[in-house]
Amino acid sequence: MNDAIPLTYKTIPRILCATDLSPRCESAVRRATLLAKQMDALLLLVHVVDEAQPPEIIERQLELARIALEARQLTSAADFAIRIGRPNSTIARVVGEWDPDLVVLGAYRERSGERLFGTTAERVIRTGARPVLLVNREPSGSYREVLLASDPSDAFAEVICMTQQLGLLEGATTSIVHVLAQATRSMFYPAWTTKSEIDQLMHSLRWTARRALVAQLAAAGLDSAHFCIVQKHGSATDAIASAVEQVKPQLLVIDRQRGLNVLLSANNTLPVIVREERQGAEERHNSDANMRRLL
């Protein structure tokens, strides 16, 4: 059994994939394996045996997990770790220890005694600063259509760069959904403003917002010509849902809070990367030092 977390240099990309070894997690494992090959990344498969069981069952499950993971014939750039604990908190803890560039998890399931991966995904997303890829479909090669949900923060351009560095935009048609506030007559003064004047003003507002987004991308060294900008009015959730229906992406990249809303949607079958702001350089250095002490 490999219960130690391998220590590696961060110059090599890392992908961590959590699996309960059930058929529904196979899509996540296959996607993680495919991405590791594309990125020349290190891959760590993590399996947790639930501690809330009799000792003899735990020992049996540890042995079965070791046999199953060894049978995968992992490459020299891949390894596995088996832990005993509460699955959701243990996986989140391993993510913090190994500090991967990307966490891959299986499809969301409703909370219940045996449906733990919903809570696992939520725990990792809420407590970690790592991008989380939620795989809800069987992988069929690289993603060909990618949709990025923009926001006005400086972190958004970093999200695009992160997605590029992970190789997820290579060969893909990439769209950005730009959410604008829903226009209402109460926004305009005087109250007798005509529809034509309102339409003209809204066109001006959309153009101004678009220029701001283009400037945001340019400041990060990104060419807006490489992206299809889709502007939508309304709440963020509704606007993103509308853009998904229009673009029909194979992958959605979204921030943490809106990502949780998508994650918790019973109708969602779209692979999603949920992203939170990364640590600063000093925090990252301290994290690496702490990890060495742990290991």
Which keywords apply here?
19% strand; ten-stranded mixed beta sheet; Rossmann fold; alpha/beta; 10 strands; disordered C terminus; 9 helices; elongated; 295 residues
Structural description of this entry:
It is built from nine helices and ten strands. The protein is α/β, with parallel strands linked by helices and 295 residues long. 42% of the residues lie in helices and 19% in strands. The protein has a ten-stranded mixed β-sheet, with helices on both faces.
Could you give the count of β-strands? 10
Radius of gyration: 21 Å
Structural class: alpha/beta
CATH superfamily of the largest domain: HUPs
Secondary structure layout plus pairing:
Blueprint: E1 14-18, H1 26-39, E2 42-50, H2 55-70, E3 78-85, H3 87-98, E4 102-105, H4 117-127, E5 132-134, E6 145-149, H5 155-165, E7 173-180, H6 195-219, E8 228-233, H7 236-247, E9 251-255, H8 256-263, E10 272-275, H9 281-294
Parallel strand pairs: 1-2, 1-4, 2-3, 4-5, 6-7, 6-9, 7-8, 9-10
Antiparallel strand pairs: 5-10
